[in-house]
Design brief:
Blueprint: H1 3-21, H2 24-40, H3 42-49, H4 55-66, H5 72-83, H6 90-105, E1 107-114, H7 120-134, E2 137-144, E3 151-156, E4 159-164, H8 165-178
Parallel strand pairs: 1-2
Antiparallel strand pairs: 1-3, 3-4
Helix pairs in contact: 1-2, 1-5, 1-6, 2-3, 2-6, 4-5
Length: 183
């Protein structure tokens, strides 16, 4: 089984536990925190990933640290991850969890590139129009990119909507040179 399939399986299991506990968003936040610790804090990553530290010792310390701070079902999930030696996949599990949670909540992410920083009104109008067009709640990720000169490029998954001035100028150049416009 591939790492991504394993990550999706673990994420799906955690989402079921979170739904049972009525805390899907909170579990996502907790998992993001633990995954970030694993990715960014060398001591934490070494502690979890070092084979020389007995699994039972890792589990005992995790229980000590997280008890009374996080829901018991979340702790149990972490203990299973450590018991099955899947802790290296925590960042992938977190990404898969976020995707599953977004899918369940009817949210989609969109990368929105402008040549300038859009004001709040333009952001709101764009998100409203995208949500209506795509039939889902859109979570925008705005990026400033001077290379597009003007307009906007929106990417949702593998779908790209290119309304940039750069593309329009390239189309005009193609028309003038070749006598045809690109599709």
């Amino acid at each position: 089984m591939s790492a991504s399939a394993v990550a999706v399986n673990y994420a799906g299991t955690l989402l079921e536990l979170a739904a049972r506990d009525g805390q899907e968003e909170r579990y996502g936040e907790l998992l993001a925190t633990v995954a970030a610790l694993h990715a960014d804090v060398d001591d934490f990553r070494s502690f979890l990933d070092t084979p020389g530290i007995p699994t039972e010792e890792k589990k005992r310390i995790l229980r000590d640290v997280f008890t009374d701070r996080v829901p018991p079902l979340f702790i149990n999930f972490l203990l299973v991850v450590v018991d099955k030696r899947r802790q290296r996949w925590l960042p992938a599990i977190e990404a898969a969890y976020r995707d599953l949670l977004d899918e369940k909540a009817g949210r989609i992410h969109a990368s929105v590139r402008f040549a300038f920083e859009p004001d709040e009104e333009l952001r709101t109008q764009l998100v409203t129009a995208l949500s209506r067009r795509l039939g889902a709640d859109v979570v925008p990720h705005f990026v400033e990119d001077e290379r597009i000169l003007g307009g906007v490029i929106i990417r949702v998954g593998d779908r790209v909507m290119d309304g940039s001035l750069r593309r329009r100028l390239d189309d005009l150049r193609s028309t003038l040179v070749h006598g045809e416009a690109r599709g």
